Task: inverse folding
């Protein structure tokens, strides 16, 4: 079983602010049941392993398409 993190701990692990993490969740970058879950009375609990997989996937995508933005469009330049 993997480790579960609070939003503050998850943000610290990703080296971003907790507000940024919540904004990313609101935009749909993280899916409930995949990256985090909620229980009544608790804030979201983040799955560390899923966050690591997401982070490593983002790193590979950036290496493969360094001049692209989300959606696969190329940046001018």
Result:
């Amino acid at each position: 079983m993997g480790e579960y993190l609070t939003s503050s701990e998850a943000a610290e692990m990703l080296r971003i602010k907790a507000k940024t993490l919540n904004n990313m969740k609101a935009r749909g970058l993280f899916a409930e049941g995949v990256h985090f879950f909620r229980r009544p009375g608790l804030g979201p609990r983040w799955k560390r392993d899923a966050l690591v997989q997401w982070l490593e996937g983002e790193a590979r995508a950036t290496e493969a398409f360094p001049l692209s933005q989300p959606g696969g469009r190329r940046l001018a330049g």
Notes: Residues 4-50 form one domain. The CA atoms of residues 31 and 71 lie 18 Å apart.
